[in-house]
């Protein structure tokens, strides 16, 4: 039961698939995470933002593909993403799409783990030529996962980090900071309005055998 | 408490010398492993069932029948019998036959297999994995308990007036375990029937095993078969031993690093920490396995995988010798301490017969001979 004075708490997971240190992907991930946290705070919610650096789990992700189970450290990351009310997912663009490491993480999430989850997508690359990868590569992946992806995806080319306006005076593109804020507002809106139903835990609440025997649905 | 060996029956190259056994050598090795298990006082030998290279045991009852003829005491089991793609009618017949030939030394572990294409190869649809496991077992369960079965399901030809022969030895069907690594539905199934539940945890962390076994125990009690701590639980295990821990690590590492399933993945250090794999001295194996019940409760069956990854047969036989002489006798003693008297042992033929109120002949005599039209006169 939520009392009147009970604050609205929202957990945001930020996944960064950057490989370098320092990493522009991590920079973008931090900006997005901060913006969402700030926006939630301004709307009276109590945010907590958890960062998952996939680079730290690179070996464990490969091992999980082999063994089928997560190391204790990777399990913490997987749990954080699944327990979050909203996800910020940011990857570098390699060969026109998300990196293998990013996809590896998506691949080891349990089936349906992101269904109905509000998601904000971000990507980085050297030049703006890769900017459509957010919509042409990332968005279909998250459509498959049945996530609720906000309309604004934030792409940052290296150049974006050196401009407070559009990269060129005449390109009419909103500067990175504006795009980050717009995307954060969109995600916050969904995160605050959604009352996501957690999937039933089959261990707490198994499908009764008689139901399975009758050929009924298995939850 | 039963201790034994389970074999996948893989034909794998020895990474230290490149030698790879023939299928014939591997089949012979499985037999010798089973004979050794009986010789050193282990209780169970269980064979996998596979229908593709690099595995040899496609026909477990043939293998187990041969082993039955050459052993006296060993309990023969499977790990697992494919309840999904085998016809449950044939399982009922084959294992009842084996039960008679082995003098009741047989039980089975139902499973769904680990090779997707086996479903289409045997005319089934992999998306029906769980429904097949449920429906086929429901039929098998009846075939061993009802002399004449009329049956109609969704996934198999209906049966009218069908009698599975031979009828179970002494009127008592073989005990059944249900094996599953990840599916709560199978733990639920085992609990519903009051059958055993085997968690093959060899590649999994103990917290997962605990969750699966916990669900089975809770539901076993829910379905009225006894207390949760009286449910029949089996676990997998994996060990490699030498007298010194360092010798064991050095010798086993190339096999670990190149093993099917986990080879070229996690380090042996991580894997031994995260799964039941124990590489070390017999005492280290004793310590690790004596502690399993702290996680899953007092249990009934512990099977070890020891003959995979290309390990030479002589090494495997040495491992079984160590298990039988140094490890299992100590584990038997340690696990008996503090085990409540109401926790049962795994059912075997003798205890099942006793629970049924004694042995009875349940031979079904045909009314008339379909060819001659004459009724045979049974000689009593």
Structural commentary:
The complex is a heterodimer of chains A (219) and B (380). Chain A is an alpha/beta fold and 219 residues long. Chain A has a single domain (8-213), classed as Rossmann fold (3-Layer(aba) Sandwich), CATH 3.40.50. Helix content of chain A is 39%, strand content 20%. Chain A has helices at residues 24-42, 58-67, 72-83, 100-108, 133-144, 176-193, 209-213; strands spanning 8-16, 45-53, 86-94, 97-98, 118-125, 148-149, 154-157. In chain A, strands 1, 2, 3, 4, 5, 6 and 7 form a seven-stranded mixed sheet that branches. In chain A, strand 5, helix 5 and strand 6 form a beta-alpha-beta unit. In chain A, helix 1 (24-42) packs across helix 6 (176-193) and helix 2 (58-67) crosses helix 4 (100-108). Chain A is globular, with a radius of gyration of 19 Å. In chain A, 39% of the residues are buried. With 380 residues, chain B is an alpha/beta fold. Chain B has a single domain (2-355), classed as TIM Barrel (Alpha-Beta Barrel). Helix content of chain B is 40%, strand content 14%. Chain B contains 13 helices and twelve strands. Chain B has helices at residues 23-39, 60-70, 88-101, 118-121, 129-143, 184-193, 206-222, 245-257, 268-274, 282-290, 292-296, 313-336, 349-355, and strands spanning 2-7, 44-47, 75-78, 81-82, 107-111, 149-151, 159-162, 175-179, 196-199, 233-241, 278-280, 301-305. In chain B, helix 1 links the parallel strand 1 (2-7) and strand 2. In chain B, helix 3 (88-101) crosses helix 5. Classes of the chains: A alpha/beta (219), B alpha/beta (380). Chain A binds chain B through residues 62-63, 65-69, 71-72, 202-203, 206-209, 212-213, 215, 218, and chain B through 130-131, 134-135, 138, 154, 184-185, 187-189, 191-192, 203-205, 208, 211, 214-215, 219, 223, 261-262, 264-266, 270-271, 274-275.
Greatest contact between two chains: A-B, 19 and 31 residues
What is the CATH class designation of chain A?
A: Alpha Beta
User: At the third CATH level, what is the topology name of chain A?
Assistant: Rossmann fold
Q: Tell me about the largest β-sheet of chain B.
A: 10 strands, parallel
**Total count of strands of chain A:** 7
């Amino acid at each position: 039961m939520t009392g009147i004075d009970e604050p609205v708490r929202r957990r945001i997971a930020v996944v960064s698939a950057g490989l370098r240190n320092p990493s522009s992907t991590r920079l973008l991930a931090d900006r997005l995470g901060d913006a969402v946290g700030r926006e939630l705070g301004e709307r009276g919610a109590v945010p907590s933002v958890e960062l998952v650096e996939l680079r730290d789990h690179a070996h464990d992700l490969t091992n999980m593909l082999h063994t089928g189970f997560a190391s204790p450290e990777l399990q913490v990351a997987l749990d954080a993403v699944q327990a979050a009310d909203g996800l910020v997912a940011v990857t570098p663009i390699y060969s026109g799409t998300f990196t293998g490491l990013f996809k590896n993480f998506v691949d080891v999430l349990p089936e349906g783990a992101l269904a109905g989850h509000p998601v904000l997508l971000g990507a980085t690359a050297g030049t703006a030529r890769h900017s459509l990868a957010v919509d042409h590569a990332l968005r279909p992946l998250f459509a498959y996962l049945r996530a609720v992806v906000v309309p604004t995806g934030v792409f940052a080319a290296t150049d974006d980090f050196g401009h407070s306006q559009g990269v060129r005076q005449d390109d009419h593109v909103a500067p990175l900071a504006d795009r980050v804020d717009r995307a954060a507002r969109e995600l916050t809106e969904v995160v605050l309005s959604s009352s996501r139903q957690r999937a039933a835990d089959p261990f707490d609440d198994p499908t009764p055998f008689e139901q399975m025997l009758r050929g009924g649905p298995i939850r | 408490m039963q201790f034994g060996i389970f074999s996948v029956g893989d034909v794998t190259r020895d990474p230290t010398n490149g030698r790879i056994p023939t299928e014939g050598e591997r089949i012979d090795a499985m037999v010798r492993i089973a004979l050794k298990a009986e010789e050193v006082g282990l209780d169970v030998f269980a064979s996998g069932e596979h229908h593709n290279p690099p595995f040899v045991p496609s026909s477990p009852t043939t293998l187990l029948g041969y082993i039955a003829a050459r052993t006296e005491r060993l309990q023969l089991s499977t790990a697992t019998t494919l309840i999904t793609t085998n016809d449950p009618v044939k399982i009922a017949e084959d294992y009842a036959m084996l039960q008679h030939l082995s003098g009741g030394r047989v039980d089975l572990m139902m499973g769904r297999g680990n090779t997707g294409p086996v479903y289409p190869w045997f005319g089934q649809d992999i998306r029906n994995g769980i429904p097949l496991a449920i429906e086929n077992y429901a039929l098998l369960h009846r075939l061993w308990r009802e002399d004449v079965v009329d049956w109609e399901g969704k996934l198999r030809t209906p049966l009218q007036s069908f009698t599975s022969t031979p009828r179970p030895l002494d009127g008592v069907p073989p005990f059944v375990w249900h094996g599953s690594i990840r599916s709560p539905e199978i733990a639920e199934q085992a609990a519903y029937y009051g059958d055993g539940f085997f968690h093959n945890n060899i590649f999994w962390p103990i917290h997962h095993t605990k969750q699966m076994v916990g669900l089975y125990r809770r539901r076993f009690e829910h379905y009225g078969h006894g207390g949760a701590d009286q449910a029949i639980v089996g676990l997998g295990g994996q060990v490699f031993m030498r007298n010194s821990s360092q010798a064991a690590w050095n010798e086993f590492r190339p096999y670990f690093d190149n093993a099917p399933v986990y080879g070229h993945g996690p380090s042996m250090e991580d894997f031994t920490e995260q799964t039941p794999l124990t590489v070390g001295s017999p005492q280290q194996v004793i310590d690790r396995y004596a502690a399993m019940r702290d996680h899953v409760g007092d249990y009934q069956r512990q099977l070890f995988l020891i003959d995979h990854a290309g390990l030479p047969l002589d090494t495997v036989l040495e491992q079984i010798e160590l298990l039988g002489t140094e490890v299992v006798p100590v584990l038997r003693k340690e696990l008996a301490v503090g085990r409540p008297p109401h926790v049962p042992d795994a059912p075997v033929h003798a205890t099942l017969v006793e629970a049924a109120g004694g042995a009875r002949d349940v031979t079904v005599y045909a009314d008339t001979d379909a060819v001659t039209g004459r009724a045979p006169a049974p000689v009593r």
